[in-house]
Amino acid sequence: MKSDFSNWSDVRIFLAVFRQGSTLAASRILGIAQPTVARRIDALEAATNLTLFERDTRGFKPTHAARDLFPLAQEIEAATAAFAKSAQALTEPRTIRITAPGTFADCVLDLFSDFSAANPNIAFDFVPSIRVLDLSKGEADIAVRVTADVSDGSLICRKIRTAKWALFGSQRYADERGFPKSEDDFRGHRFVTFEHADVPDYLHRWLTDRVTADQIVQSFRDVDLMQAAIRSGQGLGLVNIRQAQFDAALMACFGPIDALSRSHMLLISPDAYRRPEVKTFVKFFAPRYAATFDQS
Amino acid sequence: MKSDFSNWSDVRIFLAVFRQGSTLAASRILGIAQPTVARRIDALEAATNLTLFERDTRGFKPTHAARDLFPLAQEIEAATAAFAKSAQALTEPRTIRITAPGTFADCVLDLFSDFSAANPNIAFDFVPSIRVLDLSKGEADIAVRVTADVSDGSLICRKIRTAKWALFGSQRYADERGFPKSEDDFRGHRFVTFEHADVPDYLHRWLTDRVTADQIVQSFRDVDLMQAAIRSGQGLGLVNIRQAQFDAALMACFGPIDALSRSHMLLISPDAYRRPEVKTFVKFFAPRYAATFDQS
DNA sequence: AAATCGCTCTTCATTTTTGTAGAACAACAC
DNA sequence: GTGTTGTTCTACAAAAATGAAGAGCGATTT
Fold it and tell me: In this entry, which stretches build a coiled coil (chains A, B) (predicted)?
């Protein structure tokens, strides 16, 4: 009485033998040796205390007990098939759900176009801004965040860029008024600034906290226009350091302003990072993003 | 990519680890060693191409994929439980379905009482006379038959008794008229016979085929009465040889009449004979039946 | 009547799986 | 701090399952 039905795989063998009518035919279907098939049936019979097949030289003929059990064995088979199918589905590429600050889309749209061209089978779903925490709850796969603090240690966190800012002016401005030497030296200088409802205003606020309203000669809603104004000598303005490198006319008054540094992070839920398509995307995205500029 | 989900037992392990949260706790539940549990999970992950658990020093934490798969694994578990339960039910003693000639019940009722007293958990179901063939279709488990021919070779056939018959008379009859020497020597003799609607009449017909109607002096509907008539010398009559041994007054005219020999068979379907309660019954019944007499 | 085919069973060497024992590590209690 | 508990790993030896090859046996075909 050691009825120990723990080897569930034996019902796979049972079904094959039942359907084929012989252990030899079953062994061919199952891809295992015939003696093994016979041994598994012996084991199943021992486990159930039943005689499942009538053996003779022309094959294995199911007994009444086996016929009774057959439909139940099929149920098991169906359940395992569903399990396997679902497991298979989980390995297949799915839509990558990504969340990012509002300004993000404008800046890196090209990157997504490029990626989609190279990987046409990987789709994206841009989910409206949600908290970082929600990543671990599975509401999104990837989040782009500009804050430095990573609240949830279970998330994979990849710093893809540190945006640094400095105060720039033109040669003409320098000739006329000179450059301030530090952020405590703004008296008598003139500034241009950038403001937009969709963009975090910490740059603008940093300026207004340090200069009087009449020192700000103009406020732009477009970065390029503001840069043009700086170039033409209308005032000093905050520009991303790497972006400024492409504009020879811009000259930094002094070094990067640490208080304005912001890390750009890619946060990925570990579950998502296991998915090959997510890995592929991150690998593609991170270096290219580092080379891009945005205002946030 | 050798996704070969053939070891169904691994979902048993999967469920235990999922529920316990650690391979060690799971190993205790399952009664197998912890490294084995961990290895089975590794194997399942390899088979499904999924990471099912996040390993660390405090246990195995299910991933999202594992959580998705869990309900399906439970389905498999439920199906195997149903299978095991059904298999278990098939091993438990069931009613023995028995079919026999009409006269049978009267003759061996005591045997059933005795058996039931000794095996109170084994029940019987007397099914109305059906053909032998129906045994193999599973309509009954055991059949008692008196014919010699066993049509279906797949049935287990046990000859439990050969009933032989001879013509008996009393000393007084012998003194008055002498005994016939053979069945061709019935002229001038007188006979008694037995007839009953519920009993096959081959004995009676054998007699009427060989003697004239006026030679039969009396017909009884009760065997004991007929035997008493023979004893008193009223005529000769057919009596079961073994039954006659108990009645010293009865004398055989000549040897057993072969044409009247009948084998009593116990036919058992192989499926039924595998059931322990059926085996027990047959073992009990066969020798006792051989010691009993009946008219059929 | 002989040959062939499709089975099952047995044996034995090989491969695979399992268990045991112990190291290493984090969390927690005292 | 220190010890204890609960966990995962890694070896390595032991046990078990597997496969290959071949004997034997009926039924069927030639």
Answer: none
Render pLDDT for A264-276 as a digit per residue (tens, 0 to 9): 788 888 888 888 8
Give the Å distances, CA to CA, from A36 to A10, A47, A54: 11, 16, 17
Would you kindly state where each structural domain of chain A is located, as residue ranges? 10-86, 96-162+262-290, 165-260
Report CB contact under 8 Å: A48, B271: no
In this prediction, residues B24-43 reach a mean pLDDT of 96
Give the model confidence (pLDDT) of B121-175 as tens digits.
898 888 876 555 567 777 888 888 776 555 556 677 777 777 788 999 999 888 9
- Which positions in chain B touch A63 (Cβ < 8 Å)? 270-271, 274
Nearest to A79 among B3, B54, B76 (CB): B76
Q: Which CATH number fits domain B165-260: 2.40.110.10, 3.40.190.290, 3.40.630.30, 2.40.128.20?
A: 3.40.190.290
Give the bases of strand D that a protein CB approaches within 7 Å: 6-11, 17-22, 24-27
Judging contacts by C-beta atoms under 8 Å, the chain A residues touching residue B51 are 274
Q: Enumerate chain B positions whose Cβ falls within 8 A of a Cβ in A.
A: 3, 5-9, 11-12, 48-51, 54, 63-65, 68-69, 72-73, 75-76, 78-80, 82-84, 86-88, 90-91, 138, 270-271, 274
Q: In this complex, which of B7, B49, B87 lies closest to A69 when CB atoms are compared?
A: B87
Return the CATH superfamily for domain B96-162+262-290.
Periplasmic binding protein-like II (3.40.190.10)
**B10-86 CATH choice from 1.10.10.60, 1.10.10.10, 1.10.3080.10, 3.30.420.340:** 1.10.10.10
Q: What is the mean pLDDT of chain B?
A: 86
